[in-house]
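Researcher: Before we compare anything, I want clean individual predictions. No alignment, no superposition, just each chain on its own. First chain goes here; please echo the sequence and then give the structure tokens.
Model: Echoing the first chain and its structure:
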Amino acid sequence: MENGERIGTYDGHNGVIWDIDVSWDTRHFCSASGDVFVKLWNCETGDVINSVSTPTAARSISLSYSGNLIAFTTIKMTQNVASLFVYDIRDGSQMSGENQPTFRKSLQTQANSCVWTHLDDTVCVGNEKGNVHQYDIRKGDDIVNFNDEAHKFQINDMQMSTDESFLITASKDKTARLFDARTLDCLKTYKAERPVNSAAISPIRDHVILGGGEEAMKVTQTTAASGHFEAKLYHLVFEEEFARFKGHFGPINTLAFHPGGNCVVSGGEDGYVRIQEFDTDYLKFDYDF
């Protein structure tokens, strides 16, 4: 994080990597790929600990609160339906494919994002119809909570707040929305001018950040200004935009806050990862009521 220098590469996948997630202690991370494999890695050494074969491409992935359970979604392809899987990394027979996963649910609509919403108990998926569905892996494969009016178009990303109270979603319908993580009630809506690909909640301030822009296939016809390729900061409560970070010349695909809240990282279609450090003015900034 000091200078952005690359210190290592994790080699092992043979296709596009759609999503990754890191455990709370940074010992492990998992990756979901289009090469029909989900992999568990040792963060420090870069070694592959386990590879799980998936029926189709894995689209999203999330590690549970303890770091012991992996949830991931797969896409619909030919005879295979879109599905949600949960594997226990402590069970070698599950990870090797000898035994069935801890949880499996066929999905009527493909889910491009998933996240654990309460400890090691509940998983939320956001699908291509803009719906958010929540499953409790202790209670079978029935939906325990849902919001079928979450968004008008597909959900591209979902992230939790540090205390697991809130869930933020990013959608193609040009909005990001804040939900109660237990009830899935919509609390706030953050409006943008272009599709939102990613959204994150600050761990230290009442702020959220949105990133996206004109779709990649249309970028060649779009100027940087009208493409809205900036990362945009909004007040969590008042839903008002108050700052932008420029620099990307293509849509932003992913955003993440540093756990200390002092910087934010963005990954863009332009092939760049940008580390944006907040200055002292931001850290001292108080919103005027």
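Researcher: Okay. Second chain, same rules.
Model: Second chain and its structure:
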Amino acid sequence: MAIFNKKSKKKKNHDDDYEEYYDEYDEYDEYDDYEEYSDDEFEEETYEPPKKSRPETSNKRERLDNTMRKQEQEAQQEQVAVIEHLKNENQQFQKEMQRQRTMAERLKAEVENKQQEIDQLTMRLTSSSKSKETIIALEEQVKQAENLRIQLDEQLLDERNKCIETEKQLRQQDLMKNQIAEVLMEAKEKAQQIIERATIEADRTVEAARHETKKAVSEASIELKMINQEAANYHTRILRLQSETSVLMEELLSKSSRLADQSLE
């Protein structure tokens, strides 16, 4: 429909040019600039205006038609090229969004796996012995979990940067700006939601593991203090018993010595 209107408009312009050409030609008269004189001063003469060059005008019109047809063909070719270009851009954008969704799902799966590992680690912290070496090993595992969370955050940031780069590339396109902007905004919001959910889950997981580790370390420290206190009390009782035994032995030896002396007398 737009092409038909374009053709009608061009044809109308062509007719206007044709009429304008003859209008300008008719307006020109080499005798218009001369003053008029009465019939008494000059004899009446018959004047025949110059004939208009119809063949030359026909050639001009034919050239104009050819030019307009050529421009119309070029416009149609350009329109086809633009549509093909937009299709290619849309396909590339869909592929990029699919890749980003796949990456987000993979990262989410890794976060869930890490959550399971941290849960297992928490169970081990609860059920294992409270020795110093075990606590140090558990703290090392927590550090590794935190390092892994940092790596996941870096990957998420990299995906966010890629999304921003994709947005910049799409914004550079001059055609179909409104549609591209709408698709871009939806993709950005979805990617942002995925990134935020993954970040929140990772933060919660690490925070829970850190809390459980601190709790286990605190309980182990209290238990060690109690064991040390009991050992100190036991040592004190042994020393007191040893002291009491020594006194008793001395008393027995003294009594034995007195009895021996009395027997000799």
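Researcher: What stands out in the second chain?
Model: The chain has a mean pLDDT of 72. Additionally, The CA atoms of residues 35 and 88 lie 71 Å apart.
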